[in-house]
Amino acid sequence: MENLKRYQQAKHTAIIGGIINTLLGLLKIVFGFMTHSQALFADGIHSFADIFADIFVVIATKASSQAPDASHPYGHERIETLFTIILALVLIFAGIYIAYDAVMHIMLPHSRQSANILSFIVIIISIGANEWLYRYTLRIGKKIKSEVVRANAWHHRSDALSSSIVLVGIIGSAFGFYYLDPIAAILVAVLIFKMALEMIWANLHELIDASADDETIKQIIKWAKKVDGVLSIHKLRTRLLGGKVFIDIHIQVDPYISVSEGHFISRYVEIILQKNIDNVKDVVVHIDSEDDSLAVSHVDQCSREKILQHFNERCASLTNFSQIQKINIHYLNNQIDLEIFFTDIKQNSNKEKLQHEYSTALKNFKYINKIFVWI
């Protein structure tokens, strides 16, 4: 449902952008032809070309909003990341076009346009419309956390800058300062290059699983530690996917709580992180009885089956062996603690004696550390 709403908002901005670009394109081409303004006519063609960018955004957000499936269990958000990079490349080509056009104005005096009041009015409308599109699209892009929509917003800003160059040329020509237009154009092209390269760099980082920013990581640690039962946090990993944050976190809990309580704590951590940190899509919580980033591996220790086999061989003849209800095994600090639970034993049974008897029987077992007896 959230993905559908996100797609609908992105689609709405693209449709508005497409309509405005179509009207601007027609306006600039008609008046460019009427006033013999090559620059205005070219800017009209540019506006029509921008319609493809709006279509591009719709396709990208639609594809990235698809729910996870068997082939893509993490979702399709990276489609949006890839499309954002492509749109940034389009911005680079737009910058190249602006710079090329500026050089042509310097080299070819006949390409300089003459001042005309109709051209002036049309280009002012174009600048105002594109600037409004930029602000509106950027606001929606930030709201729905969509990089491709934000990239399209900057594309609208580049259109406003491109039209501003035409305006500078019109004003400059009125006063005989023909070179104001190409100089301003080259400066704008540099700004567009810079913006597009920053956009590509950020999204390339996302494609190679870059982590979330430092502030987000601080917030993850802060909120996870607030959960009752979390003793410490270690092995925190994050990655970005289509602007969404995926979290993989290890938390240490009391080693003697039940599995179900540990699961409850992990679910609580997951919920509190998704509730309090923006743009978190998925949280994987690992429950640890100790800090496994420091602890020695238990790879060479015995399985439960082998431990119980050894226990039965050593303890079958001991007091109240038949009254053992269950045995809990705790793997801690590369050693093993055993909890032995007895039932149907008289209240005056000597707990300390039983613990000593079973501890003595198991003292030569390599990994046994402590024996706890419960009656």
Structure in words:
This protein is α/β, with parallel strands linked by helices. It folds into 3 domains: 206 residues, Cation efflux protein transmembrane domain (Alpha-lytic protease prodomain-like, Up-down Bundle), CATH 1.20.1510.10; 75 residues, Alpha-Beta Plaits (2-Layer Sandwich); 71 residues, Alpha-Beta Plaits, CATH 3.30.70.1350. It contains 10 helices and 6 strands. The strands form 2 sheets. A 3-stranded mixed β-sheet has the order 1-2-3. A 3-stranded mixed β-sheet has the order 4-5-6.
CATH-assigned homologous superfamily of the largest domain: Cation efflux protein transmembrane domain
CATH class category name of the largest domain: Mainly Alpha
Whole-number count of domains: 3
Kindly identify the CATH topology of the largest domain: Alpha-lytic protease prodomain-like
**Cα end-to-end separation:** 53 Å
Largest sheet: 3 strands, mixed
- The appropriate CATH architecture of the largest domain is Up-down Bundle
Structural class: alpha/beta
Keywords summarizing the entry:
375 residues, alpha/beta, Alpha-lytic protease prodomain-like, Alpha-Beta Plaits, 3 domains, 3-stranded mixed β-sheet, 6 strands, 14% strand
Q: TL;DR?
A:
The chain has 375 residues and is an alpha/beta fold. The protein is built from 10 helices and 6 strands; from the N terminus they run αααααααββαβαββαβ.
Describe how the helices and strands are arranged:
Blueprint: H1 2-34, H2 38-64, H3 77-107, H4 117-143, H5 147-174, H6 180-207, H7 214-225, E1 232-241, E2 244-252, H8 259-276, E3 280-288, H9 304-315, E4 324-332, E5 335-342, H10 351-362, E6 368-374
Parallel strand pairs: 2-3, 5-6
Antiparallel strand pairs: 1-2, 4-5
Helix pairs in contact: 1-2, 1-4, 2-3, 2-5, 3-5, 3-6, 4-5, 5-6
